[in-house]
């Protein structure tokens, strides 16, 4: 725990807020995370002959950097492991993202200066110095450890221009390509037009939250847009919403002159069950179906708001998600086949998929792995349309792209931002008192 002394031993402690946030995904929300826990003290850990530390995921990257490269401090207990004679860190690629040898490899040795690496180095330098790219000087390059770049590619002026052009060319108001226009450095093709665009949304709100501006622009510019909601998202609906909508269903039948006795009985049974439900108890399949229906209605309403027709809305309900608990099953053959069937039905020119793998429950990663595997199999089978299909990864709900990583960015006016915001507000079950809040809630 942050603040643990190097002399601390195994004991009962009051959990730090950062620890409770990190474990909130195992519970309905942070309020249900225990405040007390038994922790092994630093002194006890350092007495071990060998220490192995495991970490994975983008969320661990900042603390790994502090633990491995930062000063030894009690505010970052893992940094105290630097004093141990036999300590090994085992990390996945995402957890290493903030380490110097991965984030700024030019500072640890000689590298091959590709265009991508030049862009990353110069953008990072500009961000750190707080200067526009075009204002960087030879002195800045030398002081930031980029002297080798000057030797290989000329003076700062030429390099600045090269990076500026790369950044400029990534900005476009035409995410589907501008028809009947030849723009050499445009991130998307101008032809064919209109394109068939398939947006994969892991949960029923990721499309409008993470790429709502692009979503709207693709439709407004005449492309054939399809949205595939990969999971039902049912565990993210509160019990209160279930009773609210069942109450509405009973009232609707009464207004319409339909016999509401059966629905009234169902409503009372569900309300009684929910009233006696224990914390973290798994919902019945019937209640999960109602929660899934609520999210489908919200997703449909969002698509209608954007202008998508009913035939462009697809609910995949991938089986791996339907465990009823936070922990999901690994991707299975059924998940892959459902995705393959949809791709072959639409034959898209553009596929948009969620690439923000920092989703704490891991659903986004499983959904992306399913898409990758489906596309891989289709390509192996020799489908002709796959040769003209481009895959774009978007981020936004849990993680943002670094500026140097962005290959296409869509500028939005204040009116367009407001329009996107209204689309997000349609997801009322996710707007107020949601079960799984972010760390900034």
Report on this model:
With 441 residues, the chain is α/β, with parallel strands linked by helices. It has 3 domains: 11-100, Rossmann fold, CATH 3.40.50; 104-169, no CATH class; 196-237 and 292-430, Rossmann fold, CATH 3.40.50. It is 41% helix and 10% strand. The strands form 3 sheets. It has a 5-stranded parallel β-sheet, with helices on both faces. Strands 1-2 form a two-stranded antiparallel sheet. A two-stranded parallel sheet has the order 3-4. Helix 14 (363-380) links the parallel strand 8 (350-354) and strand 9. It is globular, with a radius of gyration of 26 Å. The model has no long low-confidence stretch (mean pLDDT 89).
Write the layout of secondary structure elements.
Elements (H helix, E strand, L loop, with lengths): L10 E4 L2 H6 L13 E4 L2 H5 L4 E5 L5 H9 L17 E5 L8 H4 L11 H15 L8 H6 L3 H7 L2 H14 L26 E6 L4 H15 L3 E6 L9 H17 L5 H16 L8 H22 L6 E3 L17 H14 L3 E5 L8 H18 L9 E5 L19 H12 L16
Parallel strand pairs: 3-4, 5-6, 5-8, 6-7, 8-9
Antiparallel strand pairs: 1-2
Low-confidence stretches: none
The CATH homologous superfamily name of the largest domain equals LmbE-like
Mean model confidence by pLDDT: 89
Q: Which fold name fills CATH's third level, the topology of the largest domain?
A: Rossmann fold
Quote the beta fraction: 5-15%
Amount of helix: 40-55%
CATH architecture of the largest domain: 3-Layer(aba) Sandwich
Q: Order of strands across the biggest sheet?
A: 7-6-5-8-9
User: How many helical elements?
Assistant: 15
How many strands, which pairing sense, and closed or not: the largest β-sheet?
Answer: 5 strands, parallel
First and last CA, distance: 22 Å
């Amino acid at each position: 725990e942050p603040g643990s002394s190097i002399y601390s031993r195994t004991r009962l402690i009051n959990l730090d807020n950062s620890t409770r946030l990190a474990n909130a995904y195992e519970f309905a929300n942070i309020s249900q995370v225990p405040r007390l826990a038994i922790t092994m003290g630093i002194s006890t850990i350092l007495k071990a002959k060998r220490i192995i530390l495991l970490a994975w995921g983008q969320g661990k990257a900042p603390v790994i950097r502090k633990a491995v490269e930062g000063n030894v401090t009690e505010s970052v207990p893992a940094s105290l492991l630097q004093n141990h004679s036999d300590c090994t860190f085992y990390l996945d690629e995402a957890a290493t993202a903030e380490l110097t040898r991965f984030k700024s490899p030019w500072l640890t040795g000689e590298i091959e200066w590709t265009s991508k690496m030049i862009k990353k180095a110069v953008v990072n330098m500009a961000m750190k110095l707080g200067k526009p790219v075009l204002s960087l000087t030879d002195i800045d390059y030398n002081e930031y450890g980029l002297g080798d770049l000057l030797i290989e590619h000329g003076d700062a002026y030429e390099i600045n221009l090269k990076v500026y052009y790369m950044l400029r060319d990534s900005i476009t108001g035409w995410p589907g390509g501008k028809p009947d226009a030849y723009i050499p450095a445009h991130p998307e093709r101008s032809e064919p037009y209109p394109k068939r665009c398939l947006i994969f949304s892991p949960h029923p709100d990721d499309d409008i939250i993470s790429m709502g501006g692009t979503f709207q622009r693709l439709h407004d510019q005449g492309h054939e847009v399809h949205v595939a909601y990969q999971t039902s998202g049912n565990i993210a609906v509160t019990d209160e919403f279930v009773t609210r909508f069942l109450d509405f269903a009973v009232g609707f039948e009464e207004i319409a002159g339909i016999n509401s006795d059966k629905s009234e009985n169902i409503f009372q049974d569900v309300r009684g069950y929910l009233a006696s439900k224990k914390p973290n108890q798994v919902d019945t399949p019937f209640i999960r179906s109602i929660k899934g229906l609520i999210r489908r209605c919200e997703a449909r309403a969002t698509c209608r708001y954007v202008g998508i027709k009913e035939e462009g809305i697809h609910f995949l309900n991938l089986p791996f998600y339907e465990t009823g608990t936070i922990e999901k099953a690994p991707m299975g053959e059924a998940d892959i086949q459902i995705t393959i069937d949809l791709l072959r039905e639409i034959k898209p020119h553009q596929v948009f998929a969620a690439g923000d793998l920092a989703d704490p429950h891991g659903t986004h990663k499983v959904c992306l792995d399913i898409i990758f595997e489906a596309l891989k199999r289709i390509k192996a089978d020799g489908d002709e349309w796959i040769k003209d299909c481009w895959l774009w990864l978007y981020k936004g709900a849990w993680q943002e792209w670094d500026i140097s990583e962005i290959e296409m960015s869509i500028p939005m006016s204040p009116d367009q931002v407001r329009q996107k915001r209204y689309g997000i507000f349609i997801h009322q079950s996710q707007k107020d008192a949601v079960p799984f809040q972010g760390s900034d809630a």
